[in-house]
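pls read this stuff:
=====
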Amino acid sequence: MPLPDAIVPEVFVQPGECRLLKEPAVLRTVLGSCVGITFRVPRLGIGALCHPMLPRCPCPQPPDRNDDANRRYVDFAIHDIARQLDSLGAARHETQVKLFGGGDVLPIAASTSRPTVGKMNSDAAIQVLEQEGFKVSACRLGGVSGVHIQFHTATGEVLLRHLDSGTARGPKSSRGTFRGGARQ
């Protein structure tokens, strides 16, 4: 039985961090070009949120790099969480995965043909999740403003709030709740 919201701990996940919890909690983060990836295994009561900042871990890795430093990379963070879920007995087919962020929040020249960091992060996340055998059940990627997400590990609900993009249009107030299928 889920704990009432008043006593569920809240954890803010910083850029470059991953948090995997075995008890109900609300995991929060703010995303721009970074991606936020939620993992939930209802049978085991496990919830996780990764907040990687860059698409690919450089190879070969310097010997002084530790796992904490490597979690800032999309590919490493997903592979690492997959290993942790495997060790806890979670199967890929029962793991609910949702993907957010990857926005183009920094001004870029319109004439550039290079992909943005947000686009590269989004593409890397989709590719590595597929390689690992995860199916994404909800996805909200791209855009030009940051987003704040709060992931309720007990229910799988993700609340999304768009942040002000700094334009003259004023703050964005759209909100979304992601429970099942993709919602744009």
Residues 167-175 have pLDDT under 50 and may be disordered. The CA atoms of residues 6 and 25 lie 11 Å apart. Residues 117-132 form the longest helix (16 residues). The helical segments are 67-70, 74-87, 117-132.
